[in-house]
Amino acid sequence: MKLHTRLLLSSIFAALLTIVSTGNAADKHHGPAWTYEGAASAEHWGDLDKSFATCKLGKEQSPIDIQAPEASKLASLGFAYLNGDARLLNNGHTIQVNLSGAGGLIVNNDQYQLLQFHFHTPSEERINGKSYPMVAHLVHKNGKGELAVVAVFFEEGAAHPALDDVFTRLPEKAGSQTALVGGLNPRTLIPDDRAYYSFMGSLTIPPCSEGVRWQVMKQPLTLSKAQLNAFRKLYPMNARPVQPLNGRKIMGS
User: Fold this and answer.
1) 71 and 164 inside one domain
2) Domain match, 216 and 185 both
3) Model pTM?
4) b or e along 7-44 (b: 16 or more beta carbons within 10 Å of the residue's beta carbon)?
């Protein structure tokens, strides 16, 4: 085998190893350990590692308490969701539903692909000081790598039928995952009333990166006490405290 051929094959093999390693890393927790309680809780995230510094130094941190939003004719959110493959992952901090081929979101003519959604209890976002038993965060990314998150509140009431497969098959061990047979259509997570609040914020977990476009739906959905308890059995509390607004504008449709 000629030298240049061997070098080419070696490069291809190395690239494949990199892709495989990167894919596996996405399903595992790496970096400094952080928690919601104790010595590594939210108030200490910014001191755990220099890569988490934005958690304490950032000026547009999430979540926030939404108070006195400015009335505005916000652009309608274009939900173009599809039934796609879904895989439940217990990532050690929440249950995350990774999606493939599930469509996306259009905001101000900007297209975002839906990547995953996950849950926090109680809700991280608050409305005039009020929190809900749970919130789902639907995470999207556009072609420039920018993130947009849609937050949907849940209050206790009737069971959410489309989430039955999720709450009855929660992976109990951190790092474990399971596929949802038949996939899932995330359209069932969007309330009929599309009114929402809009503001710029951050990720609500380390490294707390900013520049995230937030859309918080005003109308809550319901889930049953049994569904809520199934999640809280694994994660009794996984919500970051609300962060200072620091002069940000909150718009409401």
Assistant:
1) yes
2) yes
3) 0.87
4) eeeeeeeeeeeeeeeeeeeeeeeeeeebebeeebebee
